[in-house]
Amino acid sequence: QLVESGGGSVQAGGSLRLSCMVSGSTDTHCMGWFRQAPGKEREAVAKLYFDTEYIYYVADSVKGRFTIIMSHVNGKSTMNLQMNSLEPEDTAMYFCAGPGLYCTGAGDPADFGNWGQGTQVTVS
């Protein structure tokens, strides 16, 4: 089960931190953050492996601004997306997803089995 939080509205140049609480069997699987803007296809933002926390993919459009982080504390696992220097082009619904078949490259969102409900990020 995946539950996102942390979206909201922010001015350009600002920051937001998205969180995704992860429960269930996800050991050794790929997890990721995706986004979908109105009228556009869903795209991968960043991906990592749940257990090793190795980051396999970060979209060129967010490199240097977004950081994906996995946290395992007191038996609870959270996948975070720290978003800095936000731009209006980052406006989208953001989703966490996993487990996924492939972690390298942008891939196909259809490779991921479970999705959170999404959280809206609006940058003006």
Description:
By secondary structure, the protein is mainly beta. 0% of the residues lie in helices and 53% in strands. The strands form two sheets. Strands 2, 4, 5, 6, 9, 10 and 11 form a seven-stranded mixed sheet that branches. The protein is globular, with a radius of gyration of 13 Å. The mean pLDDT is 93.
Please give the structural blueprint.
Blueprint: E1 2-5, E2 8-10, E3 16-22, E4 30-36, E5 43-49, E6 55-58, E7 66-73, E8 76-83, E9 92-100, E10 112-115, E11 119-123
Parallel strand pairs: 2-11
Antiparallel strand pairs: 1-3, 3-8, 4-5, 4-9, 5-6, 7-8, 9-10, 9-11
> What is the overall number of helices?
0
Helix content: under 10%
Strand content: over 45%
What is the averaged pLDDT score? 93
N-to-C CA distance: 31 Å
Shape: globular
> Could you tell me the number of beta strands?
11
Q: Write down the Rg.
A: 13 Å
Q: Could you state the oligomeric state of the chains shown?
A: single chain
Look at the helices and sheets and give the structural class.
Answer: mainly beta
Helix-strand string: EEEEEEEEEEE
Q: Main β-sheet, in a few words?
A: 7 strands, mixed
Low-confidence stretches: none
